[in-house]
Amino acid sequence: MASFSIGEPPAPQLLTIDTGSNLLWVQCLPCTKCFEQASPIFDPSKSSTYTTLQCNSPYCTISPSDKCDPSNNCKFSHKYLDGTDVAGLLGTEKFTLETSDEGISPVANVVFGCAHDNDCYNGQPSGILGLGPSNISLATQLGSKFSYCIGSMKDPKYPHNQLILGDGAKIEGLSTPLEVYNDLYYLTLEGISLSERRLEIDPEIFKRTPSGTGGTVIDSGTTLSFLAKGAYDVLSAEVQKLMDGKLEKVEEPDIPSALCYKGIISQDLVGFPDVVLNFADGAELGLDIESLFQEYGQNEFCMALQESPVGNDLNVVGIMAQQFYNVAYDLAANKVYFQRIDCELLDD
Of 128, 174, 325, 343, which residue is the least packed, with the fewest Cβ within 10 Å? Predict the structure, then answer.
């Protein structure tokens, strides 16, 4: 999550960070349909710095068909894979961001979406902060670098999570090449290791095909991670070998393809080895038990690395896999950096 204020007077917002989409949008009054959120819904009519974006703006490309309303304001709409469906008007507004020295930095004329008709979004945030590679993304509006550090997702009050936009981003750790394709961030995943042993998985499984299917993307807006069937089957079999005779395997009707067991992660998986995602140029992402497994129901848990949906060979590195890491993006240099660290150490 990222918190900041928009408008004048400033109105606090809490947004979900999403590297898998581009547009930053918040719910706005008047609502045709809005979901519940923790903070009051933003009212652009009460902000002295809000302006709607006209259809001749170069940013007015989110919804190229039927993109103008009768007043020549630029409309947008977007549907997410989880079923979230939002629509409204593009505008510009003053954003007030916190600085690393606990000060504030106002940024004028940030392009964002004022969403009036919204469906199916779950949770308390007031919208989504898209950090994709297009020109409308907040990341590219403010520069070519950004970084985020995520602590334990089990602790919603953890105070040291951080998002840094622009030249102040923490560009540290081992890097791996970044490729932009279809407005997604693709990485070169070369293999997966368990118990310090590289698993026998054909590396072609992780590559994008000439037709553009498959490959490996990093997406902070997706909770779980997903592997193409060939890679998932190998990893799943190895995990089951480690569990056999120790924990009872169970099936969850809601997620029949997931690998699930009876037990408590913190008690029953002490000493379980890390799963390591091995990327090009030596960068690694190590998944401990908090990143590899997710509690599901009472005294049950499932592996948070699941098989990609049938017919979809895309490998996805979701946000659970990025816990306890500072992840940095340098879009000018086409690199992503991974640094395993306690986020509190970055507060200095």
Answer: 174
DSSP, collapsed to helix, strand or coil, labels residue 46 as: helix
| Residue range 102-115: mean pLDDT, rounded | 87
CATH 2.40.70.10 in the chain, residue ranges = 2-142, 174-346
Percent of the chain with pLDDT strictly greater than 70:
95
Give residue 30's identity as a one-letter amino acid code.
P
Q: In CATH, what class is 2-142? A: mainly beta
Between vectors from CA 328 to CA 121 and to CA 145, what angle results, nearest 5°? Answer: 90
Grade residue 156 by pLDDT with cuts at 50, 70 and 90: confident
Residue 333 CB contacts under 8 Å (≥ 6 apart), including other chains: none
Please enumerate in sequence order all residues whose Cβ is within 8 A of that of 245, keeping only pairs 6 or more positions apart, or say none: none
Question: Top-level CATH class of 174-346?
Answer: mainly beta
Cα–Cα distance for residue pair 76/332, rounded to 1 Å: 28
Dist. CA 34–CA 126, nearest whole Å: 10
- Rounded to two decimals, the pTM is 0.92
Q: Which of 295, 304, 344 is nearest to 324 (CA)?
A: 344
For the chain, how far is it from start to end, CA to CA, in angstroms? 20
pLDDT bracket for residue 306 (50, 70, 90): very high
pLDDT in tens, 171-205: 999 999 999 999 999 999 999 999 999 999 999 99
Alpha helices of 257-335 — where are they, by DSSP H? 265-268, 289-292
